[in-house]
């Protein structure tokens, strides 16, 4: 009895919060037929927004994955002065409102930054958008990898070392296989954040529009069909990311 | 194969002195036990020899070569850890082959060698299994095969049987002994279990609080302990003021005698052939006597009985 209550409760909660609104967006996007929706997302402005979003993802996801693994290794496997501070700073993008991040980048690159004088435009252009997404999506890989690194300990790595393995060989053949699912999950979370980020990007994007900004702009222009169609694209990217992760998930759960 | 010389090795962790000027020689081809209570520095000494821990001072020589500055990977040591350190995402076969693939040996050689080693550790049928599908004893045998695969000049075992249950531990000890007779590689085993050290090793190094208390054969340590610590660590002991008496040197009789003192039987513990008798002397001193089943039957010992005891042999340390 209580088990049924639990099931219905959870499913109801999920439906109310997630499925109904997203389903409604899907419904409204395709309400006038697939052709109509297709037309709405293939306008030059929509395609450009999608491109911007994909480019910033193509930069931010790999960079934060590599950096995240390195930072996690540094935090768990080494002792350095200020380690506690670094550990706390990693969480800053999670704790800080994205708008504040955007604003600080705006101030940094718009006013004080000597970069503009040297002909490098950060604000209101692609670099600014990429920097903002890099910042807000930084913690995910680190936070997923750190606990796993702690749990596996160092004995396997030491065993590999006594067997003649060099540091890079140890990482490639022992450490990375042990943390790969944590990395994969971190990548999914990073991707989701990068694709969906609104607040930080909106502060530095200016007239440039990423997909979430495009959705907002379309709503403001009363072009709701364009907004719904773009939202569907965002949702599909998110679903695709999760599906890809599932497809790669460990077949042998025995490890 | 190579002997090991440790010279004046010192190691501190955050102000705690784990090893203090430790010097010891491990003869080539021997099986040596580092014996001591936890925190005595025995594992640290092993890890210093392996190159996994850098000493603050002193030298380590393997086969006459000073390896103090060399990383673990170039010392030619095989190491076995208490918790197996199995590569969880690799099969038994790949675990054992790891060192050989790192050294880029030809495939035919790897095949042959891994096959031979799995036979040696009796895991031939389990080559395709993952470590999680093995028992503790099997995992540790796999770890041993993995360490032996690279033909190390020195085999280092850090409490290798510590995580196993008593029966498996006994089996593996006997098996390790036979393996050493076969392979003859210089081997060091770290243990806190004096029985294990005495059963397996030809030479025992007793450590306490980062210092070496005594080095000798099991017999030497038992018969001629250098000090109180060794005396009480390598076997059960009765302490009577300044004198130490082994339980098997306590004689129990039913007839009063001028050389004997009166005692009462508190408890009789039957352990098969061996029977432990707990006694309390008239002066309040507690005594443990180790008798045989036969002796206890002859004396018809039971709780509350008054007996007469004397020490056939006792040890006094002058310090």
Question: What is the tally of beta strands of chain A?
Answer: 0
The chain-level mean pLDDT of chain A equals: 87
- By DSSP (H or I, 4+ residues per run), the number of helices of chain A equals 13
Number of strands of chain B: 18
Span between termini of chain A: 35 Å
- Largest sheet geometry of chain A: none
Instruction: Summarize model confidence as the mean pLDDT of chain B.
Output: 92
Query: Rg of chain B, please?
Result: 24 Å
Specify the number of helices of chain B: 9
Q: Greatest interface and its residue counts?
A: A-B, 19 and 31 residues
Account of the protein in words:
The complex is a heterodimer of chains A (255) and B (319). Chain A has helices at residues 2-29, 34-41, 44-77, 83-90, 92-95, 98-112, 126-136, 139-152, 155-162, 167-196, 199-205, 211-220, 224-248. Chain A is mainly alpha-helical and 255 residues long. Chain B contains nine helices and 18 strands. Chain B has helices spanning 42-50, 92-102, 107-120, 136-149, 166-183, 194-200, 218-223, 228-233, 293-299; strands at residues 4-13, 16-26, 31-35, 57-62, 65-66, 77-80, 154-158, 186-191, 203-208, 211-216, 238-240, 243-245, 250-253, 261-271, 274-281, 286-292, 306-311, 315-316. In chain B, strands 6-7-8-3-9-10 form a six-stranded mixed β-sheet, with helices on both faces. The radius of gyration of chain B is 24 Å and the shape is globular. Classes of the chains: A mainly alpha (255), B alpha+beta (319).
